[in-house]
Write a structure and sequence with these properties.
With about 140 residues, this protein is mainly β. It has no helices and nine strands. Strands 1, 4, 5, 6, 8 and 9 form a six-stranded antiparallel sheet that branches. It has a three-stranded antiparallel sheet with strand order 2-3-7, with no helix packed on it.
Length: about 140
């Protein structure tokens, strides 16, 4: 088996694309969906077997603003594998999704993305999730 070769990406910064949606679950509870995506071109990778292999490590933290503390911490490791014969600029973004159910409230969602091979390459995004009052059914 040939040795893996570490390949640094072009000088593009690691960039996480993220968004969220919240839905009414019942009179007191919401369903929060968090979506995230990363372009393979922004990750460092190893090459073996004719493919570029990498992954991005994500940390998601949900802070309850009224309590002033985190109520949820989640970690996601998203693998990325692309044939080496495909130019990096022609590859698609890799997308992931997480779902959480919680009481309706005011929250702060923080997402940190870290390149798995070069941990000093990071990106983060923060969302304010305001409370949405629901009328009783």
């Amino acid at each position: 088996m040939p040795a893996k070769i570490h390949v640094s990406p072009k000088p593009t910064a690691l960039s996480i694309n993220a968004d969220y949606a919240s839905f009414r679950y019942d009179d007191r509870t919401i369903l929060l969906e968090v979506y995230f995506a990363v372009h393979p071109q922004s990750l460092s990778c190893n090459v073996s077997g004719g493919k570029r292999h990498s992954w991005v490590n994500l940390s998601l933290t949900l802070h309850d603003k009224s309590a002033g503390r985190p109520i949820l911490r989640d970690r996601v490791s998203m693998p990325v594998e692309v044939p080496d014969s495909v130019p990096a600029a022609q590859t698609n973004m890799f997308v992931g999704k997480r779902e959480y159910r919680m009481e309706s409230g005011n929250y702060l969602l923080k997402i940190l993305a870290v390149d798995s091979l070069l941990s000093d390459r990071k990106d983060s995004i923060t969302f304010e999730l305001p409370e949405r009052p629901f009328s009783p059914t």
